[in-house]
Write a structure and sequence with these properties.
The protein is 48% helix and 18% strand. The protein is of the alpha/beta class and 232 residues long. A hairpin with a 5-residue loop joins β5 and β6. The longest helix has 17 residues, at 175-191. The structure holds cytidine-5'-diphosphate. The site of cytidine-5'-diphosphate has 17 residues, from α1, α2, α6 and α10.
Length: 232
C-alpha cells in the first residue's frame, strides 16, 4: 500500500534556504513544491505595473478591487524548472528583481491579498503530497500540516546566499541592497497584523547557517521518516 502523502510546511526568515530545501525535499519524495512567496511577488509585480505601489505610495483600494483580475499558475520552463505564471506570462525572472523585493512585504500585509492567496494555497494542498514554503504555512495555511519546519540562519549567511543566487540569475544588486532588503522585510513580515511570520509551536527549528544543501536535505528527510513511523 502506498504510504500517506503528507503536507510539509516550511517557514522562516527571508533567504534562509526555504525554497531550496522545499524543492529538493519535494523532488526526493515525489511531492509537489509550492513557493508561496512567488505568489506574493507575482501579485506585487502586477500592482507595480499598474502603478498602485511605489515607494511609500500604496493604492490599497485599487489593489483589493482588482484581485479577481489576477490569475496565478505554476508551470515548467523549457529546462523543466518550475516557474510562476501571472495571467499566463512567465514572470519568474522578473519577480526576483530588487524593485519587486523592495515592496513585496507591503503588498503581503494586505488582508484581502492574503485571503486570496491562502485560499489558493489550501486548494493546492487538499490532497497532500505537497511541500510549501513561506511565512505562515505552518500557522495559517496548513495549521494541521503533518510536518512543520522552521528555518533560520544568521543574517551574514543569508545575505551571502541571496547575493549568490541573484548573481547566478544575472540580476544586478549589491551586498548592501540585499542586506537592507532582508532586514526590512523580516521586520515587516514579523510585525504585521495579518498572519505575521512566527514559528508554529509544533514546528521543528533548524538553524542551517553551517549546513550544506545535502546536509539540510538529509535532516529534513530524517524528520519525514520519524513522522511516518509515528503517525498520529
Ligand atoms: O525568498 P525570500 O525568503 O526572500 O522571500 P519569498 O519567500 O519570495 O517571499 C517574499 C515576501 O512575500 C516575503 O518577504 C513576505 O512579505 C511575503 N510572503 C508572505 O507574506 N507569506 C508567505 N507565505 C510567503 C511570502
Amino acid at each position: 500500500m502506498e504510504s500517506k502523502k503528507l503536507i510539509i510546511a516550511i517557514d522562516g526568515y527571508s533567504s534562509c534556504g526555504k525554497s531550496t530545501l522545499a524543492q529538493e525535499l519535494a523532488n526526493s519524495l515525489n511531492y509537489i513544491f509550492i513557493d508561496s512567496g512567488a505568489m506574493y511577488r507575482a501579485v506585487t509585480l502586477y500592482c507595480l505595473r499598474k502603478g498602485w505601489v511605489n515607494g511609500n505610495f500604496l493604492d490599497k483600494e485599487s489593489i483589493i478591487k482588482s484581485l479577481d483580475q489576477i490569475q496565478l499558475d505554476f508551470s515548467q520552463d523549457d529546462n523543466g524548472v518550475k516557474v510562476i505564471l501571472l495571467n499566463s506570462e512567465n514572470c519568474e525572472q522578473e519577480i526576483r528583481k530588487s524593485y519587486v523585493a523592495a515592496v513585496v512585504s507591503k503588498i503581503a500585509e494586505i488582508k484581502e491579498v492574503r485571503e486570496k492567496l491562502v485560499e489558493e494555497q489550501q486548494r493546492m494542498g487538499e490532497r497532500g503530497g505537497i511541500v510549501m514554503d513561506g511565512r505562515d504555512i505552518g500557522t495559517v495555511v496548513f495549521p494541521n500540516a503533518d510536518i512543520k519546519l522552521f528555518l533560520t540562519a544568521t543574517i551574514e549567511v543569508r545575505v551571502e546566499r541571496r547575493l549568490l543566487e541573484l548573481q547566478n540569475k544575472g540580476i544586478e544588486t549589491t551586498k548592501e541592497e540585499v542586506r537592507e532588503n532582508l532586514i526590512q522585510r523580516d521586520l515587516i513580515d514579523s510585525n504585521r497584523k495579518e498572519s505575521p511570520l512566527k514559528r508554529a509551536e509544533d514546528a521543528i527549528v533548524l538553524d542551517n547557517s553551517l549546513l550544506r544543501r545535502e546536509e539540510q536535505l538529509q535532516w529534513a528527510l530524517e524528520q519525514v521518516q520519524i513522522r511516518k513511523s509515528n503517525p498520529t
